[in-house]
Design a protein that fits this description.
Layout (H helix, E strand, L loop, with lengths): L12 H11 L16 H25 L2 H7 L2 H22 L16 H8 L15 H19 L13 H18 L13 H20 L15 H4 L12
Amino acid sequence: MHSLGKSPVFDSLQDALSLGEQHWVEKEMIPTQEYLTFNNEESAVDSLLRAEDHILRAEKCTESAQGNEARWNSLHWKWVIICLQNSLYTFALTVAAGTNPDIVKTKKGRVVDLMTALKRCIGVKRFIHSKPVEFTRSQMNSICWLHSHFRNKFEHFSPSLWSIELKGMPNICIGVLESIRMLALDSKNISYAGRYYWHHEKERKIEESVTRSVEVLRFSALYEPSDGIDEFPDLDKQWNMQSRLDPRRI
């Protein structure tokens, strides 16, 4: 197997921010003259890199901005949430579907929601070298907070005033990033061979992006070292496996 190499570890937030700036802007898609062409893996990686960019920007704002500037700049967290959810969702659909897109569609032909897609990933082992997909309870909790509480309200925002406590937000994002790493890399359920320069290059980019983002978030003033995130209400109900597709079809 190809070695991804040693992941970068940083001594300070500034080091992590500096290195991240150098890498996230690398092109992830190859455009044609008239069309933007990409597949689901490319879309998932793009969202992951966009999330990394907004994490870097949000942390720079936390360090330097004041007053109204800090208030407006804190909106980067909204895009961190939206991009991470999209990346997780797309990787989950990729793992669950394999070579059969119908697995992630309803009887009416609509694509299933994130929670259903994640539940259909559990236990999946696509290849001989793959590992069955499993989520820790901490990861399940982070996913529910990010998706059900924050992302859904941003995507379907009704006229209102909504105040979000950012303390602990890095902990939630780290749990989601670890879930993305598990789906995209550790479980080895996605084959990146294909057009352009996928395969090992893409694995490396996913690994580096997740690692940089986690390092920056751990240095954040908003990070809770004790992992003091409240358990999501009805967490077990959210992960009720009764809505999962019959595993014989996966």
